[in-house]
Amino acid sequence: METKTMEEYMERIRVLDALEQQAMGLSRMLTTYTDRLQERLEQRVDIELASEGVALSSIKSLEAVVAKSVQQKQSLIRKCQQLDHEMEGVMAMSSKIREIKQLLDVMEYTKRKS
User: Fold this and answer.
1) Using CA atoms, how far apart are residues 8 and 10, in angstroms rounded to an integer?
2) DSSP string of 50-111?
3) What is the DSSP secondary structure assignment for residue 1, as one 8-state letter?
4) For residue 2, what pLDDT is reported?
5) What CA–CA distance (Å, rounded) separates 99 from 103?
6) How far is residue 42's CA from residue 61's CA, in Å, rounded to a whole number?
7) Cα-trace Rg, the chain
C-alpha cells in the first residue's frame, strides 16, 4: 500500500510540475501580450500627439491667412473709399466739360446760322 501511495504522490508531483510549467508559459505569454499592448498604446499616443501638433499648426496657419485676407479687404475698402472721394472732383469736372461742350455746340450752331 505504501508503494501505491508513493506512486500517487509522485504522480501528483508530476501533475503539479506540469501545471507549474503551463502556468509559467501562460505567464510569459501574458507578459509578451502586455508588452506588445503597451508598445501599441505608446505608438498610438505618439501618433495622436503628432496629429494634434499638425492640427494646431494648420489652425494657426489658417488664422494667419484669414487675418491677412481681412487686412487686404480692409485696405481695398479704404482704397475704394479714397477713389470714390477723388472721383467726386472728376465727376464735377466731367459735368463742367459737358456743359462747355454744349455751349460750344450752341455757339457753333449759331455761327453756322449767321
Assistant:
1) 5
2) HHHHHHHHHHHHHHHHHHHHHHHHHHHHHHHHHHHHHHHHHHHHHHHHHHHHHHHHHHHHHH
3) -
4) 66
5) 6
6) 29
7) 48
Sign of CA dihedral 95, 101, 105, 110: positive
What nine digits make up the cell of 7? 506512486
The pTM for the full model equals 0.49
Residue 69, amino acid: S
Q: Is the dihedral of CA 80, 81, 83, 84 positive or negative?
A: positive
pLDDT for 46 equals 96
- The grid cell for 3 is 508503494
Model pLDDT, residue 109: 86
